[in-house]
Amino acid sequence: MSYYDYDPSDWTFYNPDYNEDEFDDDYNDPQQSTNEEQKDSYNKINTDSKKKEQKVKNAERLKLVTKKIASCKNNKQIRSNVIRILLNMNIEDSISNYVKREYLPEKYANLAKERNCLETLIKIFLKENLDYSLTSDIINEINYLIDTIYKNIELDIVYNRVRKIQKFIHEKADLKLGNNASLKLPPEVMRKILSTSRLHLNILDSKELEIESFISIITKSEKEHLKYNDVKYTFSGKKTKRNYDKDFNTLITIDDTLALNIKKINELDLNKPLVIFRKEILLMFDSLFQ
Questions:
Q1: H or E stretch including 238?
Q2: What is the C-alpha to C-alpha distance for residues 214 and 55, in angstroms, rounded to an integer?
Q3: Helix (H, G, I), strand (E, B), or coil: what is residue 235?
Q4: Phi and psi (nearest 5°) for 223?
Q5: What's the pLDDT band for 146 if we cut at 50, 70, 90?
Q6: Main-chain phi, psi angles of 238, to 5 degrees
Q7: What's the start-to-end Cα distance of the chain, in Å?
Q8: Cα-atom radius of gyration of the chain, to the nearest Å?
């Protein structure tokens, strides 16, 4: 090619040995390198900062637990206090997870935290869906039902207690509208009522029961869950197996990490000397957040 044939825009004319691919691979934009270095530096600072914050939080948690169990007279008291602290730390997250899994609207989630939750749910349903007048007799029946559920002398699981509410509503529906009227109740409304009732009772159990009683109910619930999921039910003439996972959700079992952590602490050997047990449970508690 002669000088007069060259394309002015093609500067490679001056360098016949130029290799475009080789040039692109070797070339590094100084500005890009600087940006990447700055980004890496920022990420490192951000990571280090988060680690420091987490370390401070862990230290505060450990200090709280150490102070809480310092005056405990026996290993059982120590264990109960540590599990209680774990529950209190995770209760709001567990409630949030429960609400998401059950697709509960915000107003139902908020109602579940109120002391009058069951009374409100039952009264509103009877009045709005079954056209009941809330006479003194009806109110007395509701109060007796709720009182029995709250006392829970037999430490019955949440699922069974909520079934009493379901049975009460079904009986009132059949009485008011005729036999089998309970089969025609609005399913979505009933789902929200029963789900909210379970959440409400789970919250109360976790906050008000002695830890030993609370763990006992959780253990019973897990056993019942397995039993119910092994039972086959017939719907529309076809045999099927109903999934009861949501029905047996608790504020512990809905969170695998929390359930595992509480199980670890609950299984510690209570027969060890108090000083050794205290040290062991503090080490375990601290390890849960590392």
A1: strand 238-240
A2: 31
A3: strand
A4: -65, -40
A5: very high
A6: -110, 140
A7: 71
A8: 31
